[in-house]
Write a structure and sequence with these properties.
Blueprint lengths: L4 E8 L5 E8 L4 E5 L16 H15 L7 H12 L8 H12 L11 E8 L12 E5 L6 H23 L19 H14 L7 E5 L6 E2 L2 E4 L2 E3 L1 H13 L3 E5 L7 H9 L4 E4 L7 H9 L5 E4 L1 H4 L2 H14 L2 E5 L9 H8 L4 E3 L6 H16 L1
Parallel strand pairs: 4-14, 6-10, 10-11, 11-12, 12-13, 13-14
Antiparallel strand pairs: 1-2, 2-3, 4-5, 5-6, 7-8, 8-9
Bound molecules: 2-phosphoglycolic acid and zinc ion.
2-phosphoglycolic acid binds next to loops.
Length: 379
């Protein structure tokens, strides 16, 4: 494909913040992509600039790409990495990722599978205004058969949970956070886990659905201590506390249980864990950090976010690394999303086992879950 033009525009994301959308134009076609933004961003993620800066960089970025022919995703992405820098510091991650995604739309990719969705039903941490420190409480229907059954289970749980919350805590308890999960005035992690198991149990789904957590623990790590559930823990005490909590419930996975630099702390947690331990801020979809996590035995699962690294090719390398070392992986959205459903196609095209795209509600989240329904129809 020869790129004849690139047209950028600023569009709003789900938080009402400006983000980048662009059209990649060839002689015959036009391919569009927009990019998301995280709030609990990992310190080691690729560089993201605000939209004004991104648009200031754009003319120089465009000049280097237009008028050239790229015969494969690899070739384009290699060039994007070369001009943007490893950390995408020269032009920012949004320009390289939007270009990379738009280009991928010029090739037909076959759906190859359907990931199990992880539905975020309770929002805490930086994604909500309450007291809960754990950022995401998810339900994972991993033991149901088809994608549509899994989606149905997620929807039933979401609505039953809404009723329970309203009954117990009043109307304002069902206001939602950034990812569409409820943000109730519950103070302690334990109480949420207990309520979720009640809700899942009342629907007769306890054998089929587990709970997953994203702690995003960097957000409550202060002065060498973990501040959670009205307690202040040393890292060693905290590992015990969290392990006990997780093992008292059907917890399928725990993401970022410790702060983002503590490879050894993750390893301590993993050693005693029955749940999968997922790296997100720790690993930032970057193979050099994956290698470090592997050496330290920090995790056995990876959160894969294309915008932490900035091109499709690098994202695929992170997935290949998981396959090589036997980790499972989860394709992930960000808390600030657009209606671009690329990650749904990507999860299917890479036969990824899991996807997390927020609650089964709000347009920017359901865009992904609905796209997977369409792909299920094709398969
Ligand atoms: P973010 O959160 O998109 O706000 O970074 C998502 C996550 O931590 O998984
Ligand atoms: Zn996370």
């Amino acid at each position: 494909m020869e790129i004849t033009n690139i047209i950028p525009r600023k569009v709003l994301d789900s938080r009402g913040r400006w983000t980048l959308e662009l059209d990649l134009v060839s002689k015959k076609n036009k391919y569009t992509a927009s990019v998301p933004a995280g709030k609990s961003r990992g310190k080691y993620e690729a560089k993201q600039y605000d939209i004004e800066k991104t648009l200031r960089f754009f003319p120089e970025f465009k000049k280097q790409l237009v008028g050239k022919t790229y015969s494969s995703q690899d070739e384009l992405d290699d060039f994007l990495i070369r001009i943007s820098g490893d950390k995408k510091q020269n032009y920012g991650v949004d320009l390289s990722l939007a270009t990379s995604i738009a280009y991928s739309r010029s090739k037909k990719v076959k759906p190859r599978g359907l990931p199990t969705p992880m539905f975020n039903v309770i929002n805490g941490g930086l994604h909500a205004g309450g007291d809960l420190k754990i950022q995401e409480f998810m339900v994972v229907p991993h033991k149901l058969d088809s994608y549509s059954e899994k989606l149905n289970a997620g929807v039933s749980i979401y609505h039953h949970l809404r009723e329970k919350l309203e009954e117990k805590y009043g109307k304002s308890a069902v206001n939602v956070g950034d990812e569409g999960g409820f943000a109730p005035p519950i103070k302690e992690t334990h109480d949420v886990l207990e309520l979720l198991e009640i809700v899942i149990g009342e629907l007769g789904l306890l054998e089929k659905v587990s709970i997953s957590l994203d702690c995003a623990a960097s957000s409550y790590f202060e002065g060498g201590k973990y501040l959670i559930d009205n307690k202040k823990f040393s890292p060693a005490e905290y590992v015990d506390y969290l392990s006990n909590l997780a093992s008292s419930f059907h917890v399928f996975s725990v993401e970022d249980p410790l702060e983002e630099t503590d490879f050894n702390g993750f390893a301590q947690f993993l050693k005693g864990s029955h749940s999968k331990v997922v790296g997100d801020d720790l690993t930032v979809t970057n193979v050099s950090r994956l290698e470090k996590a592997y050496e330290h035995k920090s995790i056995n699962a990876l959160l894969v976010k294309p915008n932490q690294i900035g091109t499709i090719t690098e994202t695929l390398k992170a997935i290949d690394y998981c396959k090589k070392v036997g980790w499972t992986w989860i394709i992930s959205h960000r808390s600030g999303e657009t209606i671009d459903s690329f990650i749904a196609d990507f999860a299917s095209g890479t036969a990824s086992p899991f996807i997390k795209a927020g609650a089964p509600a709000r347009g920017e989240r359901t865009a992904k879950y609905n796209q997977l329904l369409r792909l299920e129809g094709l398969l």
